[in-house]
């Protein structure tokens, strides 16, 4: 399916076929595509918890305000932001040097660059959280687009108790739940898509207040 068609046909599916399961092979392909999403310094500030055990689904559904699709879908994914992604700074700096990003004497800059990247987040917890939320959200959108292209259905969810989700899936302190995404095969779901705002309301040119008025 072409990318434009995927974006035009993707829906937030609320009803799933509980008898059709997503395989490990499908998950492998899905997450290989998902992790191609961009992230600052390629830190990949995310972690995904794929919840498919029936008992775990029950716990997660309770944490998600009783939303039926959490249990009905083949799996529900907890998309987490990683507040400690800076721990990969040295590995990233070494790869950047190997690829020539730092110039011909890149090896001599690895320690300095790794320290700079690490300190950027260690010294600014809010920036670390903002970046983790951005990166995990970019990855989440990539996941939903890839899933649609693979014939799978998804729905992002923000209706949940972060602490209850943390407890349900045993998240460590450095991870926080950014969103949940149900994943599976679409069931009996035929609601029309809700209208999108006209471009003149969401796109301005050059400065705020200069709305986009495309020429015909």
Automatic annotation (TrEMBL):
<protein>
    <recommendedName>
        <fullName>Nitroreductase domain-containing protein</fullName>
    </recommendedName>
</protein>
<comment type="similarity">
    <text>Belongs to the nitroreductase family.</text>
</comment>
<dbReference type="InterPro" id="IPR029479">
    <property type="entry name" value="Nitroreductase"/>
</dbReference>
<keyword id="KW-0560">Oxidoreductase</keyword>
<dbReference type="InterPro" id="IPR000415">
    <property type="entry name" value="Nitroreductase-like"/>
</dbReference>
<dbReference type="GO" id="GO:0016491">
    <property type="term" value="F:oxidoreductase activity"/>
</dbReference>
<dbReference type="Pfam" id="PF00881">
    <property type="entry name" value="Nitroreductase"/>
</dbReference>
<feature type="domain" description="Nitroreductase">
    <location>
        <begin position="7"/>
        <end position="185"/>
    </location>
</feature>
């Amino acid at each position: 399916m072409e990318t434009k068609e995927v974006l035009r046909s993707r829906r937030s599916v609320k009803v799933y076929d509980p008898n059709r399961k997503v395989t490990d092979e499908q998950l492998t392909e899905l997450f290989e595509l998902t992790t191609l999403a961009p992230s600052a310094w390629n830190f990949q500030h995310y972690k995904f918890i794929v919840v498919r055990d029936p008992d775990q689904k029950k716990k997660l559904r309770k944490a998600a305000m009783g939303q039926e699709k959490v249990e009905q879908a083949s799996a529900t994914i907890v998309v987490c932001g990683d507040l400690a992604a800076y721990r990969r700074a040295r590995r990233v700096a070494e790869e950047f040097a190997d690829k020539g990003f730092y110039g011909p004497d890149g090896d001599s800059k690895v320690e300095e660059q790794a320290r700079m990247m690490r300190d950027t987040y260690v010294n600014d917890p809010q920036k670390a959280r903002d970046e983790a939320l951005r990166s995990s959200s970019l990855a989440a959108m990539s996941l939903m687009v890839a899933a649609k292209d693979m014939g799978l259905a998804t729905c992002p969810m923000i209706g949940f108790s972060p602490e209850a989700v943390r407890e349900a899936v045993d998240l460590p302190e450095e991870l926080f739940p950014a969103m949940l995404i149900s994943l599976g095969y679409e069931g009996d779901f035929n609601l029309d898509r809700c209208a999108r705002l006209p471009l003149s309301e969401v796109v301005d040119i050059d400065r705020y207040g200069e709305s986009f008025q495309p020429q015909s």
